[in-house]
Queue: 2 jobs
Job 1
Amino acid sequence: MIAAAADWLVSQLGSRRIVAFDAPMGAGKTTLIAGIASRLGAVDVANSPTFSIVNSYEVPGGKPVYHFDFYRLEKASDVADLGIYDYLDSGSYCLMEWPQVALPYLPEDTVVARIEVNADGSRSLTLLNI
């Protein structure tokens, strides 16, 4: 199921490369991002960058995939201190968990991937523009 969701999400992006994941704790953000990184050819096993804030996954013959977890950041200036524009302007996929603090820096073509946990425990995935 994750591979199918990752394939679908990537197929919907077109030329867009920045995805902000909007979902509650435990909804599967990291798992879906791992599936996307794998789908894009990343050789590293994707895991949550909760303490490092950003992980870079190498893609043979391509640009790296950046995986952000902004959960521990408290203010927008913390995002700026990471050099966020260098990542956003790189042309690489930038996949962001807990993106609320980064919203002031995200371009208009950012895709919001909303994951909702349904009553039966299944997940629904909806794509929106910010």
Job 2
Amino acid sequence: MIRLGEKIKTLRKQKNISQEVLASYLGVSFQAVSKWENGSTMPDVILIPAIASFFGVSTDELFDFNLYETEKQVEEICHEAWKYRYTDPTRSETILREGLRRFPGNHIILNNLLYTLDYQTRADEVVSLCTTLIESTKDDEVKYDACRILALCYKENGRSDLIKPTLEKIPEIYFTKLELMATLLDGEDSYKAAHMQKNLSAETLIDMLIIIGKHLKEQGEPEKAALQFRIAQKVMDAFEEDFLETKWFKETVYEYTSDQRKELATLLNP
């Protein structure tokens, strides 16, 4: 604790600012900053990225961690947590919380933590964490993923007025890294990227067809709507014969779109 407090104090003095200025930026009292600096308390983990951003350093620098070793250990923590993300989110969260005790405020761990939180019952925590990452991380991948998750959280909690402003923070990109990797790399790297992009593209196409169909149906154009629904159905059916690459996936596109097939059956035969 004393080590972090001393680091904050050193950085603050180098920047030639008072405890009150730092406290105002972080939205805490100057007494809280004073307690950090004298080692009696620690900043909340949610504040660590913001503190690092304020001083223009990485969270690793803030804690004097070895960058290479930190990245390696953080990757191991997140990989272990990912194993349980969908089957046991509570266990996944526990692994990530333990990781944060070792690497407070690490934005990669915090980003992974968002995937374990329920957007409705823990909306305040999701919003706070997303906002912190958006404002403080220097990693665009983390920043824009936090924007996406924040927009989803607003959607699930009926805050439609906040969805568009949040999504507008994400730049429009007409290609993906996976697409370029599949096209420009060779061998296993190209093969893996192509598989992932194939499934992602199929899932996105199905989602877009259903969204377009629902809009047309609401606008009183059932024929056009049915056309979109049938195309989506054909896309899903086409993947029934696909094989499962177990190294990277737990289900095929056909298997994980079973709920959408049921929804389409209802939409086509109300």
